[in-house]
Design brief:
Elements lengths: L7 H9 L7 H11 L13 H11 L5 E8 L5 E7 L4 E8 L4 E4 L3 E3 L8 H5 L1 E4 L2 H16 L7 E4 L9 H11 L12 E5 L3 H9 L5 E5 L5 H7 L2 H4 L2 H15 L3 E7 L7 H11 L4 E7 L11 H13 L4 E3 L13 H8 L1
Bound molecules: iron/sulfur cluster.
C-alpha cells in the first residue's frame, strides 16, 4: 500500500486501525497532494510520533525515485524514475509560455506493440499503481514550486496504454482532481489511447470531464493494422463508433493524433480520406511529424503543410505539433531503452 494512492477516507481507515484521530487524514492528504511534500518531516502540524510512524511504514511519500534525466535545448525535460521493484518509467515536462504540461506513464512497458514506439517494442512488464502514476506529478510539482511554477496540464501519453490500466488510471485522475489536493481541473487532463473501444465507451459513462485523444495514425484498417496491432481487435469503424458515443455522452471534442511517416501515411489522398473519416465529428486533428525510433522517416515541412491544408479546407480543425525534445531521446520509451542497454 502506498499512502499517496489513497483518498482521505481511506487514510482515515488506516489511522483508525492505529487508534489515531481521523482528522489527521485530511492533514496528511493535504501535505501529500496539495503541498507535494517530499518527506514526512515536512508535515509540521502532525505529532512527531505520527511522522515517525509514517516514515517507518512508508519510508517515503513517493514510491518513485529519479534515476536519470535529460534537458533539451528547448527546455523539455525527460525523467526516468525507478519504482520500488526497480522497474523504470518515463515522464516528460514540456514547458511553454503559459503552461507546464507533464506527460506521464501508466504502465511499465506496453502490450500494444505499435511499430513506431520504443515502449511498444520493449514489451509489457506491469501496470502502475495509482500511487505510482500520481507520484510522477507530485515529484515534478515539488521541483517546479522551487521555481515558483506549477504543473498546469497532464497528458496520459507516456509509457503504456492508459485505458488498459483503467482502474488505476481513474483513481489517479480523481486524486489529481481532488479539491483537497492539487485540484487540477479534469479539463486540464488528457487521456490518450491507441483505441480500446470498450474502455472509451466505459469512460464516457464516468462522471469526469477529461479530454480524450485517439492515436489514429492511419485511415484504412490495412494500414493501421500494419503499425498498430490493436486495430485488428478494434478496427476503425468500431473505434470511431466508440468515439461518437463518447462525444454524444460527454459533449467533449476528441483530439485525433496522426503521426506522419514519410511514404506511409502522408499523401494528399490519405489526407482526403482522413477528412472523410472525421467529417461532421466534434474533433481536432494533431499532426505530428514522427519521432523516429526505427527506420521511419519524417515527411518534409511542405508535405506536412499540404496535409494540414487538405483537412483545413474540409472544415476539420487541425494543428501541427511543434517538435520538442528531439535532442534528448524524447520519443516514448527511448530514454528507458538506453538506460536498460547501459
Ligand atoms: S504508442 Fe502508446 S499504445 Fe502504442 S505501444 Fe507505444 S505506449 Fe503502447
Amino acid at each position: 500500500m502506498d499512502l499517496v494512492g489513497l483518498f482521505p477516507e481511506e487514510i482515515t481507515t488506516w489511522l483508525e486501525t492505529r487508534q489515531i484521530a481521523s482528522f489527521r487524514a485530511d492533514q496528511i492528504f493535504t501535505w501529500l497532494h496539495k503541498h507535494a511534500a517530499q518527506n514526512f518531516q515536512e508535515m509540521t502540524n502532525l505529532p512527531s510520533s505520527l511522522m515517525t510512524e509514517l516514515e517507518e511504514t512508508f519510508q517515503s511519500p513517493w514510491p518513485i525515485e529519479l534515476v536519470a534525466s535529460r534537458k533539451s535545448a528547448d527546455g523539455t525535460e525527460k525523467y526516468l524514475f525507478a519504482l520500488n521493484d526497480d522497474a523504470t518509467i518515463e515522464a516528460v515536462l514540456i514547458p511553454e509560455e503559459d503552461r507546464q504540461t507533464l506527460c506521464i506513464s501508466t504502465q511499465v512497458g506496453c502490450a500494444m506493440a505499435c511499430s513506431f514506439c520504443a515502449t511498444g517494442q520493449s514489451g509489457y512488464v506491469r501496470n502502475l499503481w495509482a500511487s505510482e502514476i500520481v507520484a510522477q506529478v507530485l515529484w515534478v510539482e515539488n521541483r517546479l514550486r522551487a521555481k515558483g511554477q506549477n504543473v498546469s496540464n497532464i497528458v496520459y501519453m507516456g509509457m503504456g496504454e492508459p485505458l488498459a490500466n483503467y482502474d488505476a488510471l481513474l483513481r489517479s485522475v480523481r486524486l489529481l482532481n481532488h479539491e483537497k489536493g492539487l485540484n487540477l481541473g479534469a479539463r486540464r487532463l488528457t487521456i490518450s489511447t491507441c483505441g480500446l473501444a470498450p474502455q472509451i465507451k466505459a469512460l464516457a459513462e464516468e462522471d469526469i470531464q477529461v479530454n480524450l485523444a485517439i492515436s489514429l495514425h492511419a485511415t484504412t484498417d490495412a494500414e493501421r493494422s500494419q503499425v498498430m496491432p490493436v486495430n485488428k481487435r478494434f478496427p476503425l469503424q468500431e473505434l470511431l463508433e466508440a468515439c461518437e458515443y463518447y462525444t454524444e455522452k460527454t459533449g467533449r471534442r476528441i483530439s485525433y493524433e496522426y503521426a506522419l511517416i514519410r511514404g506511409f501515411n502522408d499523401t494528399v489522398d490519405q489526407a482526403k480520406r482522413l477528412k472523410r473519416l472525421l467529417k461532421g465529428r466534434l474533433c481536432h486533428v494533431n499532426l505530428i511529424p514522427i519521432n523516429p525510433v526505427g527506420p521511419e522517416k519524417r515527411p518534409s515541412a511542405k508535405v506536412l503543410t499540404e496535409f494540414a491544408q487538405v483537412l483545413k479546407a474540409g472544415g476539420i480543425p487541425v494543428s501541427i505539433r511543434k517538435e520538442r525534445g528531439t535532442d534528448i531521446e524524447a520519443a516514448c520509451g527511448q530514454l528507458r531503452q538506453t538506460h536498460l542497454q547501459e
